[in-house]
């Protein structure tokens, strides 16, 4: 009897643990609505890690906060489209809008009467990782989930007369639809394609949709009904009516290659009509991804910010190859991979700083995949991209940060790619040379192959009076990129290249004005251009990119000791740093960049050029100031709310900064595999590494008040420095912070 009782007790206890663990799934801490307000530019729809499909509602099509298609202040939805960008500052995608409707659509004055947008209340919408649902005011319920390359819609209608509009012209920011077509395959299947010119100048995307119930269809061109089962034009819609529309399901595969690819993607990934199963599979993919980092301690608010950040960090780059491994290359031709996956959506100016280093640490195999994709783009397009979007060079942003990503991976011994090819590709990014480069639109040339490269090559700096926008910022970034490549050259034994690149890496010194203490614009004679106001910004007519002299003066991550010397030593350096954080938080100029946000003094956490600056205090032995600022930023500029980000998410960079700091360290200069300590937020963080080992980070005596680091040990040995190397943690181990409420001066 005792054995029976113990068995029953053990079973009940085990079930209790199982139930408790089930309730503690990390998905509960993901809030996809974070960043959908303010200027976060995120979307709440369904996506899986690094998925091709981002099935999400579109609430607006114009203005800056339409970048993801969704904005939290809106109370109506235009429909649900299949691709979106997470947190960018520019707009594209929003392909194949599906809009449910009630009644019979009518022609009114020769036009299709608009049955959308559909009104809703935010209290009647929900989102979780891989799932979105909303109840509209008219009684329609819409739910979305996704696989990597396909979306799954489910609509419940309150009446017997209802249907779905498929709009192939819908777009964001007035993209041009250069070509589109639609074809009725049967009374349950429809397929089509479109070619658009927007941010990506030639973006091909195809779809194949299957419905669970038969439909009758009407085709429209320019909102006028046309006969037939096929239509090819630039402004087309299909209106589908269902006899018994109580619950209509639609599975939609997409492809950058062709309709065949879209169908194959759909059939391979969502073969059944089980919406909940697909939803559960999406959730399981996210749970597996989130479980790579487990945290203990902290508040539920902090856990939600952390895991939502991890969710946002793994949306992009996006899969861009089909299940049969075909993909559209940078030359717009169709290619086939020999293995692996091909990716697009590389927001490199942003993500090289923290998102890519985060992936380096927890998923180096993914880093290898990304770099192999970048190298294919180089081989097929002639140049590594600056901002790659759907097989297009966009020319967006500045610098050559594919070099930053590759050089950093190389420095960490992540080398699952042809390293000689990678070196050649990085070197090709330096000269002003248009030969052999394939661009899809002439307007791209000015940005992709900027004259700044030419002047930097010929004059040793970039003069702002030569009509080179962002001249000073470009000069500073090229110096950093060249330094990063120099480290690779040194390791490869390319001594002449190393010497040449190292000189270029120190050219930041030419922009520093010792009289004012700022990096400034130079004219063709190497003289500083005046008048000068370090708080001034002009978004599209300035020597500074998305910033001003206050922020850009500190863009020397590769040589902080050299910058300290330029400023006259540690005391002057600290004084200048203090001034940055304590000066008036006002950006001047009628056309000031809206990206300059999240201000602490003139430090702008809402945009990437500032993200490394707080750690400069560690270089002068004042780590408590770094810890105070890290604590302040994490507490004040990240919240569990739609406006919970102080700037654009930028494909995971804004969140990755939080994740690394909350763990307790940050990498200042990718290319140098060195971390510096920050302020750990949680009592314990366990990172499951790909090699099967664990990196454990503990914070002893941790509390909101104990924000200062008293001491740090790594694998039981006290760290005598504020810095440690990637290879010291890449194979696992234990990093222990002892926290205190008292300022610790080193």
Automatic annotation (TrEMBL):
Residues of the Glycosyl hydrolase family domain: 262-740
InterPro entries with a match to the protein in the record: 6-hairpin_glycosidase_sf (IPR008928), GH-type_carb-bd (IPR014718), GH92_a_mannosidase_put (IPR005887), GH92_N (IPR041371), Glyco_hydro_92 (IPR012939), PNGase (IPR050883)
Top-level taxon of the source organism: Bacteria
Protein name, per record: GH92 family glycosyl hydrolase
Organism: Flavobacterium quisquiliarum
Signal peptide: 1-22
Pfam families: Glyco_hydro_92, Glyco_hydro_92N
Subunit structure: Monomer.
């Amino acid at each position: 009897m005792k054995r029976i009782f113990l068995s029953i007790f053990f079973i009940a206890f085990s079930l209790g643990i199982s139930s408790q663990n089930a309730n503690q799934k990390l998905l509960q801490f993901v809030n996809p609505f974070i960043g959908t307000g303010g200027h976060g530019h995120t979307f709440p729809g369904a996506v899986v890690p690094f998925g091709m499909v981002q099935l999400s509602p579109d609430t607006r099509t114009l203005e800056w906060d339409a970048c993801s298609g969704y904005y939290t202040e809106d109370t109506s939805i235009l429909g649900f489209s299949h691709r979106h960008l997470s947190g960018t500052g520019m707009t594209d995608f929003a392909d194949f809008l599906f809009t449910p409707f009630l009644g019979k659509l009518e022609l009114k004055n020769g036009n299709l009467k608009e049955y959308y947008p559909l009104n809703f209340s935010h209290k009647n919408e929900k989102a979780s990782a891989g799932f979105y649902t909303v109840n509209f005011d008219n009684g329609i319920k819409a739910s979305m989930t996704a696989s990597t390359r396909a979306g799954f819609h489910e609509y419940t209608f309150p009446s017997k007369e209802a249907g779905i509009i498929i709009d192939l012209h819908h777009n964001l920011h007035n993209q041009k639809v250069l070509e589109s077509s639609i074809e009725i395959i049967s009374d349950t299947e429809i397929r089509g394609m479109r070619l658009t010119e927007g941010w990506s100048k030639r973006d091909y995307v195809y779809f194949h949709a299957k419905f669970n119930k038969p439909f009758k269809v009407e085709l429209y061109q320019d909102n006028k009904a046309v006969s037939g089962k096929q239509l090819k034009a630039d402004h087309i819609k299909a209106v589908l009516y269902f006899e018994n529309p109580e619950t209509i399901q639609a599975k939609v595969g997409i492809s950058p290659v062709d309709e065949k690819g879209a169908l194959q993607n759909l059939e391979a990934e969502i073969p059944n009509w089980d919406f909940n199963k697909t939803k559960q599979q999406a959730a399981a993919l996210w749970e597996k991804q989130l479980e790579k980092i487990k945290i203990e301690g902290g508040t539920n608010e902090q856990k939600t910010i952390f895991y939502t950040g991890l969710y946002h960090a793994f949306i992009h780059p996006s899969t861009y190859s089909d299940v049969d491994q075909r993909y559209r290359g940078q030359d717009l031709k169709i290619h086939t991979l020999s293995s692996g996956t091909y990716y697009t959506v590389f927001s490199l100016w942003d993500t090289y700083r923290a998102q890519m280093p985060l992936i380096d640490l927890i998923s180096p195999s993914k880093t290898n995949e990304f770099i192999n994709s970048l190298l294919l783009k180089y081989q097929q397009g002639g140049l590594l991209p600056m901002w790659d979007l759907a097989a297009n060079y966009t020319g967006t942003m500045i610098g050559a940060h594919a070099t930053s990503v590759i050089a950093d991976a190389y420095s960490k011994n992540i080398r699952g790619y042809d390293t000689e090819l990678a070196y050649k590709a990085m070197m090709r990014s330096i000269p002003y040379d248009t030969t052999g480069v394939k661009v899809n639109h002439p307007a791209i040339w000015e940005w992709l192959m900027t004259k700044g490269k030419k002047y930097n090559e010929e004059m040793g700096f970039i003069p702002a009076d030569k009509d080179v926008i962002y001249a000073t910022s470009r000069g500073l970034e090229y110096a950093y990129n060249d330094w990063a490549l120099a480290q690779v050259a040194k390791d490869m034994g390319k001594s002449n290249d190393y010497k040449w690149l190292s000189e270029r890496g120190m050219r930041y010194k030419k922009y520093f004005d010792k009289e004012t203490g700022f990096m400034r614009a130079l004219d063709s004679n190497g003289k500083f251009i005046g008048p000068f106001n370090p708080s001034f910004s002009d978004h599209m007519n300035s020597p500074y990119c998305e910033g001003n002299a206050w922020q850009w003066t500190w863009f020397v991550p590769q040589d902080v000791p050299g910058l300290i010397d330029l400023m006259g030593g540690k005391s002057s350096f600290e004084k200048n740093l203090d001034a940055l954080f304590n000066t008036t938080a006002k950006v001047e100029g009628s056309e000031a960049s809206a990206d300059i946000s999240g201000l602490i003094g003139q430090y702008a956490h809402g945009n990437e050029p500032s993200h490394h600056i707080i750690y400069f205090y560690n270089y002068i032995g004042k780590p408590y100031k770094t810890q105070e600022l890290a604590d302040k930023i994490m507490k004040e500029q990240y919240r569990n709310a739609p406006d919970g980000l102080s700037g654009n998410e930028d494909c995971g960079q804004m969140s990755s900064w939080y994740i690394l700091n909350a763990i307790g360290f940050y990498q200042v200069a990718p290319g140098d595999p060195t971390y510096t300590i920050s302020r750990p937020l949680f009592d314990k963080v366990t990172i499951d590494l790909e090699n099967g080992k664990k990196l454990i980070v503990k914070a002893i005596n941790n509390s909101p008040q104990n924000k200062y680091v008293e001491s740090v040990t790594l694998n039981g040995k006290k760290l005598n420095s504020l810095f440690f190397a990637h290879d010291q943690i890449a194979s696992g181990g234990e990093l222990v912070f002892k926290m205190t409420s008292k300022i610790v001066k080193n």
